[in-house]
Amino acid sequence: MPERKLLSGGRLVVASHNPGKLREIADLVAPYGLDTVSAGVLGVSEPEETETTFAGNARLKALHSARATGLPALSDDSGLEVALLGGDPGVYSARWAGPSKDFAAAMRKVHDALDQRNGWQKDGGPEANFTAALCLAWPDGETAVFEGKVFGRLVWPPRGGRGFGYDPMFLADGETETFGEMEPGQKHAISHRARAFRLFVAACLS
Ligand code: IMP
Fold this sequence. Notes:
Elements: E1 11-14, H1 19-29, E2 35-38, H2 54-69, E3 73-82, H3 103-116, E4 127-137, E5 143-154, E6 170-172, H4 184-190, H5 192-204
Helix pairs in contact: 4-5
The structure holds inosinic acid (IMP).
């Protein structure tokens, strides 16, 4: 069944309270003529992320905002998956940074967990990927989820002051700069979020 379309000029709630994601989603949405507003600005609370998959948490967040506002809402659930750590931190990527959202500490935790498994001795560095699930939800409960991934290696020490979260320790395959060093436009050309976003555009924007 074809997805329900968003019309140019229509309002779209961005169902995230994460400033890094809000910035990236605003950049990605900008060319499409949608009138976006963040859930935080509309006073919508952040629901607890109780699901165990990116798609499940994305659906929960988008539905929460769509129902609270009566507007279509786009959410993002994403994270870093490290092969040698069995996919951790995965859906718990934000939680590894603790309540103070200390990503220097979260990156250090990933480093130490890999150290215990001799992960840094692997040629080229330990394998990892980012995954993003974007969900568009409508106030009547209809949802559509789009998933994107980017594969690469981890580096230590972290490099670069751009981006957010685990960006400074992630080197995408074929690149020489980490996501923390790249210009935003370069990250948008290859990122997990941009890949999911392109699927969303193809399906939901006319
Ligand atoms: P959540 O989707 O709100 O649970 O948070 C996902 C977490 O994964 C973020 O807080 C970041 O730590 C991490 N993450 C997701 N996407 C990216 C990215 O593009 N770069 C760096 N870290 C990311």
